């Protein structure tokens, strides 16, 4: 990543802008000031991408699409984060300092504006560090990071979801602790670490007061998936069908398997409708079933293409084995049983979600055979469609049985 000169001057500009922003109205005047000084910085210090970022954020604020808090907080987090990151290496310690700096920026804005939107800041920080790990190699990454942070904070702010500060703190500690150990165990890379932390925090906060149980349900999938990935790993490596990076999963894998479940948790938190519980467990059951079917089923002999039932080479997308189908059913059942034992779902829901896991796994195989093999989708896209399919199946069956 190219180091940018003039960051100190940019920090001074943003500090002054935040201090005077509450007193300058209408908002477009403040926006114009930030844009003007950003262009001056570009002229003398070649801060091109930083200038682009400032101008976009300022323009959104100027046309009243961003509230004052999000405007100030995003600018502060962006600059402090860059000041810290560009003085370090691409390692875990630097990302830790990056998190501390962006958190400090959020705290300062909260204190100055006296607006206690802690949840908004937390999600802004995670969006910032996650985008940094994903986009680091791209020269224009700062612009995308700025937009991502802004939109994330705006969305959480607009949801206006109220959560206890203690719950937020516990969720952050639990989410990052779990992700850190996953990283150390080589089951997740840096992007997987932060994306898993994001999913965990969403579950803990939005599924309250059962957030811990929802998190443990997701954890059961992660454990099952990790064990399945390591199962006969050397054999799978010799066959050329092993999980890449020695089994360490990145953000694509985490989001493909967990983003729909996280969305169900948010919907449940906002609307408190039981159908979203079924959707959540159905999605997680699908993720577990599909992972077991892929990682263990591939060791079960010659597979058959799901669309033609003809023999295909081991590792072919859309290929299924009896072993894979059996462990898929077991995987969905295991996650559903955990949900039942934690009193998140009823016995009826457990049966529905177990079936959803099995159905979702075969949706994955069908999509792999028809779309992935033709190059229309990658593995992450196939997994995402599978979890969506499993979740929808669970919802439809639940509604049908309860009409």
Explain what the structure shows.
A two-stranded antiparallel sheet has the order 1-2. The protein starts with 6 loop residues before the first helix and ends with a helix. The protein has two domains: 1-160, no CATH class; 210-403, no CATH class. The protein has helices at 7-20, 27-45, 48-62, 68-85, 92-113, 118-135, 141-159, 165-184, 190-206, 211-230, 233-239, 251-271, 275-295, 322-341, 347-372, 379-401; strands spanning 304-305, 319-320. α9 (190-206) packs antiparallel against α10. The relative contact order is 0.07. The mean pLDDT is 87. It contains 16 helices and two strands. The protein is globular and about 65 Å long. The longest helix has 26 residues, at 347-372. The chain is 74% helix and 1% strand. The protein has 403 residues and is mainly α.
Would you spell out the secondary-structure blueprint of this structure?
Elements: H1 7-20, H2 27-45, H3 48-62, H4 68-85, H5 92-113, H6 118-135, H7 141-159, H8 165-184, H9 190-206, H10 211-230, H11 233-239, H12 251-271, H13 275-295, E1 304-305, E2 319-320, H14 322-341, H15 347-372, H16 379-401
Antiparallel strand pairs: 1-2
Helix pairs in contact: 1-2, 1-4, 2-3, 3-4, 3-7, 4-5, 4-6, 4-7, 5-6, 6-7, 6-9, 8-9, 9-10, 9-12, 10-13, 10-14, 12-13, 12-16, 13-14, 13-15, 13-16, 14-15, 15-16
């Amino acid at each position: 990543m190219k180091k940018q000169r003039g960051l100190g001057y940019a920090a001074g500009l943003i500090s002054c802008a935040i201090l005077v922003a509450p007193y300058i109205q209408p908002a477009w005047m403040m926006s114009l000031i930030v844009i003007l000084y950003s262009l001056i910085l570009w002229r003398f210090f070649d801060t091109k991408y930083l200038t682009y970022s400032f101008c976009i954020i300022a323009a959104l604020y100027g046309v009243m699409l961003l509230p004052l808090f999000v405007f100030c907080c995003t600018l502060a987090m962006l600059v402090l984060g860059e000041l810290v990151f560009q003085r370090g290496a691409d390692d875990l310690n630097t990302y830790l300092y990056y998190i501390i700096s962006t958190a400090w920026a959020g705290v300062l804005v909260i204190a100055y504006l006296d607006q206690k939107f802690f949840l908004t800041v937390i999600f802004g920080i995670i969006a910032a560090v996650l985008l940094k790990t994903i986009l680091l190699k791209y020269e224009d990454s700062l612009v995308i990071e700025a937009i991502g942070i802004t939109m994330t904070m705006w969305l959480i702010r607009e949801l206006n979801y109220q959560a206890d500060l203690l719950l937020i703190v516990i969720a952050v500690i639990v989410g990052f602790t779990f992700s850190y150990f996953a990283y150390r165990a080589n089951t997740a890379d840096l992007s997987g670490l932060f994306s898993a932390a994001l999913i965990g925090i969403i579950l803990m906060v939005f599924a309250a007061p059962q957030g811990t149980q929802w998190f443990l349900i997701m954890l059961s999938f992660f454990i099952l998936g990790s064990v399945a990935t390591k199962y006969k790993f050397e054999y799978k490596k010799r066959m050329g069908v092993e999980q890449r990076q020695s089994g360490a999963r990145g953000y694509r894998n985490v989001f493909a398997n967990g983003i729909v479940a996280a969305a169900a948790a948010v919907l449940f938190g906002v609307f408190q409708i039981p159908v979203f519980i079924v959707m959540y467990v159905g999605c997680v059951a699908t993720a577990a079933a599909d992972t077991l079917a892929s990682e263990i089923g591939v060791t079960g002999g010659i597979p058959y293409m799901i669309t033609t039932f003809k023999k295909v080479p081991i590792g072919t997308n859309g290929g299924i084995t009896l072993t894979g189908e059996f462990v898929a059913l077991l995987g969905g059942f295991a996650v559903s049983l955990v949900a039942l034992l934690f009193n998140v779902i009823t016995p009826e829901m457990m049966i529905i979600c177990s079936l959803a896991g099995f159905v979702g796994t075969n949706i994955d195989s069908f999509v792999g055979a028809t779309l992935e093999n033709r190059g229309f989708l990658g593995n992450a896209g196939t997994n995402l469609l599978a979890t969506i399919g499993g979740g929808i199946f669970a919802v439809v069956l639940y509604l049908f049985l309860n009409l």
